[in-house]
TrEMBL record:
This is IcmF-related N-terminal domain-containing protein. It comes from Thermogemmata fonticola. Residues 78-122 are annotated as: Disordered. It comes from the Bacteria.
Length: 879
């Protein structure tokens, strides 16, 4: 019911077509009373404040109506986007504005009327936006009017202003902490103008519905387009009627929303400033249809719109009242709490509680009663704290008034701390078992840990077994035992390896599986264990200082002095075995994998084939055994056992003869000798010329022979050069100081003895014979079964021996009554007869019979000069 009657006048003027008087007010307010209409009033026009007495359940509603010009002026007063914030009464956050028609309603349930503004275009406004701004702050609902017949461009302009208007309203309500769910109704007016001639009511209503949906879709598209690339703003809810009905917020009856308690209750928990948007299509009168029942010309959905607006405004007012009440209770509770807390603080400050302090005796007794075990109180993280506590006890003025028991306890604990720290410092500065490198160092460290500077002080009853120092010491003692066992194990291992090598080298042949066994030993893993792995039985204590708690690894005993000595000894024997294997392979003395054999004995007959040629052999030697060419000492026979040396000596002799045979054949070919080399001085000088500058096979055989000869003597001369130098001599100087002659007892039936001086006879082609005598000196010496006789020259005389001269030695003997002579006159060469002294003599008996004097040995005395032909000369001369 309109108490002022003004709305009734407007309705009558509207339906009669009369002109409405203009007003200059910015906002025009109308007060309504809403309640049940008495049944005795049949006409709605008869309802007035005089005709109806207001019941208790009637409610007051204030409608604020404002013009579009007022809204535009209000929006123009807002700062543009990105500018400074709005004043507190209308906070920042307003974004866009446009031409809208809006209506605001406010309603109350407690006697205070709600209001809702309603903005149109027919009112001219003042230029002060303050009144409209205040109305917007206090409004409980907002109604925005848009002409249903507006074009797409007009809708876009209206939506632009509406969007900024809604954003400004939402931001202002959010800043003012207004309850969420503020109802906003977008109303499409003048829908009767959408009717076309010949339309029926259903057709017209469908067109209105389509127009509503298109307007809603246009507004939604506008929001999306204006907020690209973002989605539509989340602070304005855009829901259709169907969605609200499905969510249980409203009930739908005839296309009109019926608000439910559940929907109203849900809006109580929406964010501050949240807006709840609704879309309506209305008409002041229905268009005239050809087949229209009486009464269809009444307004279309206008009453339903106002009913829903009033219900939404009432719900908004109720929620705002609940929020304000809860906020007041919250503020009161916080104030009461702060007051109580401040009161307690003031009381405690002015009258703090008094706690009776315990005496020193009580503190010491309490400390002793609750004292932790040594592992805790002596830990590095708590040691300083306990020490400070005990020192405070000791330095207290009443300390010497304590009982002797408590005094002794404090002093004993302080002494324990000092002893513990001192022992820990000594452990830190000492070298642990992992740093020892000899058994003597291990022994010394073990003694220090048990009875020396690293032991726990005795006589005080310290129980440090579970402390860091105690576990440190126990680990070191354990490590010492583990290292000692591992060191002994490594020594035994290397000793066994050395014995295995010695067994393999104590042989007189390389046949069978010798080579495979040698390979197994040579390829033994070294080191025998992974040095970074822990020793068997080693332990780790993780909480010890860095580097002290790790388990001992094989690296430690592996570098102990005794192990290093045996390891080096093993390496020497291993290298010897490897060198012996390679030497035996090169000489062709092994069986198995058929390795290259460049030093095998040359074939006994015929020239060497290309496969066995010296050049091919030398290439194989360089390719497979190059190490021994650069380090010939590795193949020196003296480093091998006696039985091996005999085998190698036999191979050298056979190889020398084989090479001599090959050289003799090559020299014969080069000198054109078919039946052998002539044993004449001239021929030997020709041979010397060929050997002085060797080439081809001769040079290759010489290099191979040199390698073999150096096995017996590292200082052995190059054989070809040595032989060439020997054969190039024009003469040789001989100076014999004397000789030793050993006579075996079996030369005759009785033991022979010298029967005169030793005689040397020397003669040349154009030279008289020279005779030198060497009488016996002293008594004979018994050596074994025979006797050694010494003969010394009567006078020292040098002989210049030329190749081709004759040279003989004779010694007369007597065996009982039998006389005989020993004659040294047959050497291997007629051109170099001084070689005969190194050959077995002939025994010429009295009857002229001649036989070899086996067992007779002759050697020159010290200081004598007597040439010795090179070994190769013998091989070439008599292969």
């Amino acid at each position: 019911m309109d108490t002022s009657g003004r709305l009734t006048q407007f309705a009558e003027a509207f339906y009669s077509g009369a002109e409405l008087p203009p007003t200059e007010a910015e906002v025009v307010s109308y007060t309504l009373q809403i309640g049940p209409i008495p049944t005795h009033l049949p006409d709605r026009h008869e309802v007035s404040s005089q005709s109806v007495s207001l019941a208790a359940d009637w409610q007051s509603v204030i409608i604020h109506d404002c013009s579009g010009e007022a809204v535009k002026h209000y929006l123009s007063s807002l700062p543009p986007e990105g500018s400074t914030p709005l004043p507190p009464s209308l906070p920042a956050g307003l974004t866009e504005h446009g031409r809208t028609s809006s209506q605001h309603a406010r309603r109350t349930d407690s006697g205070r009327p709600s209001s809702f503004p309603l903005v149109g275009e027919q009112w001219h406004t003042k230029r002060d936006p303050g009144e409209l701004q205040q109305v917007l702050q206090e409004a409980d609902a907002l109604v925005v009017l848009v002409a249903a017949t507006a074009s797409e461009l007009e809708l876009s302009e209206a939506f632009s202003e509406f969007r900024r208007f809604l954003s400004a309203l939402q931001a202002a309500r959010c800043s003012a902490r207004k309850v969420g769910g503020f109802p906003v109704f977008l109303v499409l007016t003048q829908c009767d103008r959408l009717a076309c001639p010949g339309d029926t009511r259903p057709i017209w209503e469908s067109r209105v519905q389509a127009r509503s949906e298109r307007a809603y879709a246009a507004f939604e598209a506008f929001l999306r387009r204006e907020s690209e690339p973002e989605l539509p703003p989340s602070d304005v809810r855009q829901t259709t009627l169907a969605e609200r009905a499905e969510a249980g917020e409203v009930a739908v009856s005839g296309g009109v929303e019926e608000w439910t308690e559940e929907g109203a209750h849900r809006l109580l928990f929406t964010p501050f400033g949240h807006l709840d948007l609704h879309v309506y299509a209305v008409a002041a009168r229905c268009p005239g249809f050809s087949a229209v029942a009486e009464g269809d010309a009444a307004p279309y959905h206008v009453a339903e719109l106002f009913r829903d607006v009033f219900q939404a405004a009432a719900g908004q007012r109720r929620r705002q009242h609940q929020v304000d009440r809860r906020l007041q209770w919250t503020i009161r509770s916080m104030g009461a709490f702060l007051t109580a807390a401040l009161t307690v603080l003031v009381v405690l400050f002015l009258d703090p509680p008094r706690v009776e302090q315990p005496t020193l005796a009580e503190m010491v007794a309490g400390y002793r009663e609750h004292e932790p075990p040594p592992a805790e109180r002596l830990a590095a993280t708590r040691l300083a704290l306990h020490r400070q506590t005990l020192e405070r006890f000791r330095d207290h003025t009443d300390f010497w008034q304590l009982s002797p028991e408590l005094q002794g306890f404090v002093l004993q604990r302080l002494r324990e701390i000092e002893d513990y720290r001192a022992l820990r410092r000594r452990l830190v500065s000492s070298a642990g078992p992992a740093n020892c490198r000899t058994l003597a160092e291990l022994e010394q460290l073990e003694q220090a840990l048990r009875d020396g500077a690293l032991s726990i002080p005795s006589g005080h009853g310290y129980d440090w077994s579970a402390t860091e120092v105690g576990r440190w010491r126990e680990k070191w003692l354990h490590d010492i035992a583990v290292i000692r066992r591992a060191e002994q194990q490594l020594q035994e291992l290397y000793r066994d390896r050395v014995r295995l090598v010695q067994r393999l080298m104590d042989v007189d042949h390389f046949l069978g599986s010798w080579r495979e066994e040698a390979n197994v030993v040579i390829q033994l893993q070294e080191p025998p264990y992974r040095l970074e792995e822990p020793l068997p039985g080693a332990i780790s204590v993780p909480d010890l200082p860095v580097g002290q708690g790790t388990a001992v690894i094989w690296f430690v005993p592996y570098h102990f002095e005794g192990v290093v000595q045996w390891r080096e000894e093993w390496r020497r024997w291993q290298q010897r075995l490897e060198a012996l294997r390679d030497l035996a392979d090169a000489c062709g003395l092994t069986h198995g994998s058929n390795p290259p054999t460049p030093l095998r004995v040359p074939a006994a007959s015929g020239l060497a084939t290309s496969a066995e040629g010296p050049a091919q052999r030398w290439q194989q030697l360089q390719q497979h055994y190059g190490l021994y060419l650069s380090q010939p000492a590795l193949w020196e026979a003296s480093q091998f056992p006696e039985r091996i040396r005999v085998v190698l000596q036999d191979h050298r002799s056979r190889f020398l003869r084989g090479v001599g045979r090959q050289l003799r054949q090559e020299l014969q070919r080069q000198l054109g000798q078919v039946n052998g080399l002539d044993d004449t001085p001239l021929r030997w000088r020709q041979v010397a010329e060929l050997l002085r500058h060797p080439s081809g096979d001769v040079a290759a055989w010489g290099k191979l022979l040199h390698v073999v000869l150096r096995q017996g003597d590292l200082q052995a001369a190059e054989p070809l050069a040595e032989l060439a130098g020997f054969l190039s001599h024009e003469s040789f100087t001989l100076e014999l100081h004397g000789v030793d002659v050993w006579l075996p007892p079996d030369l005759a039936l009785e033991p022979p003895r010298p029967d005169g001086p030793l005689v040397l006879k020397w003669a040349g082609p154009m030279r008289e014979e020279v005779i030198l005598r060497f009488p016996q000196m002293g008594t004979p010496l018994r050596e074994g079964s025979g006797r050694l006789y010494i003969f010394q020259a009567e006078k020292m005389e040098k002989i210049q021996y030329r190749p081709g001269d004759t040279l003989t030695l004779e010694l007369p003997l007597r065996a009982g009554q039998e006389t005989m002579r020993l004659v040294w006159d047959r050497g291997r060469s007629a051109s170099y007869q001084f070689d005969g002294i190194h050959q077995p003599p002939r025994l010429i008996r009295a009857d002229g019979r001649t036989e070899a004097a086996r067992g007779v040995r002759l050697s020159t005395l010290a200081g004598s000069v007597w040439p010795v032909p090179p070994p190769l000369w013998y091989a070439v001369l008599n292969p």
